[in-house]
Specification:
The protein has about 325 residues and is α+β, with helices and mostly antiparallel strands. The chain has eight helices and twelve strands.
Length: about 325
């Protein structure tokens, strides 16, 4: 029972943290101005890839494409920018922002050196961020990337595409666009958890894909439950039996106490954040980072989860 309650509490905390940062978005099919992109079946795959990377970022909830496409088909609404689409996504699916994109430039060339073939890929992509309520474009961004890779060609539908030169260039371009979007929309601070403690160093589940950078500072905290009454040392999770009721009708008092205990077990306990200190990112990877302790205001707990939230630049 205790394990079950702990698990439910953890879910509540994680859902609360996610709701602070997530924006619900939908990605429209990408337009294409480059014939060379058709060879790699790029336009069809870009919306899916971009949606996956937005989801990995942790600040976005990406709506299921097939579900929305089915609703559009039923209402005979085209899958392109327009007032009908905006109204449906905003009202029926509570989408906050809509992304539309375009392949502005796509170049792939081969260089043969001896027996080795090297591929050079250059990609430029632009996106529009549209407010679903008003249909207004709130941000336009463009980014490009150039990478080298093996001479093996893959289409965007192939699982090996992501490791090829064009695939890497697309991913790097998208990372730049996502970072620009996060900055432009002024998202709430990043939030995550400590996944490992190693002396003064801590591993956080926040990385480059979340638009974090070396030097970012985070506040450490953990959640505590208010399980003790202000005017008593009796746990609020324990049966409460008033003395006068116990003397008059013990069975009724016990039954009432059991009901009260059950009610409080089912009701989520009140939570408060206990600040533990601050850390600064010193090394970063795609999906995690390494941070060093800057200050500690309380001992780190021997068990339980430690959470982190990004500090504003003014706090550095």
């Amino acid at each position: 029972m205790q394990l079950h309650k702990t698990f439910l509490l953890l879910l509540l905390v994680m859902n609360a943290a996610a709701s602070l940062t997530a924006r619900t978005v939908f990605v429209l099919p990408f337009e294409n101005k480059e014939r060379s992109a058709e060879r790699y079946k790029l336009p069809e795959a870009l919306a899916v890839t971009f949606g996956d990377m937005l989801r990995e970022n942790g600040r976005f909830t990406v709506y299921d494409r097939e579900r929305i496409k089915a609703a559009l088909f039923e209402k005979k609404i085209p899958l392109k920018s327009g007032r009908q689409l905006f109204d449906l996504l905003s009202d029926s699916f509570t989408v906050d922002y809509i992304f539309s994109g375009e392949v502005r430039s796509f170049r792939v060339s081969e260089r043969i050196t001896g027996r080795q073939t090297n591929t050079v890929a250059s990609v430029e992509i632009s996106i529009r961020v549209i407010d679903a309520d008003s249909g207004r474009t709130v941000q336009q961004l463009s980014a490009r990337a150039e990478t080298n890779g093996s001479g093996i060609f893959h289409t965007a539908e192939d699982s090996m595409f992501t490791s090829s030169a064009p695939g890497v260039a697309v991913r790097e371009t998208f990372l730049k666009l996502i970072a620009g979007t996060v900055e432009a929309l002024r998202f709430p601070p990043l939030a995550g958890t400590v996944i490992k403690v190693d002396g003064r160093r801590m591993y956080l589940n926040i990385g480059k894909d979340s638009a974090a950078v070396i030097g970012d500072m985070f506040e450490l905290f953990r959640y505590e439950t208010n399980t003790v009454q202000e005017d008593s040392t009796v746990s609020t999770n324990a049966p409460i039996i008033e003395k006068n009721r116990l003397s008059t009708n013990t069975n009724a008092a016990l039954l009432e106490a059991k009901k009260e205990t059950l009610r409080r077990m089912l009701k989520p306990p009140a939570m408060k954040a206990a600040i533990l200190g601050t850390v600064r990112i010193v090394d970063i990877y795609s999906r995690f980072s390494i941070a060093e302790t800057v200050t500690l205001t309380a001992p780190l707990p021997a068990s339980g989860m430690i959470f982190v939230r990004e500090l504003p630049l003014s706090a550095y």
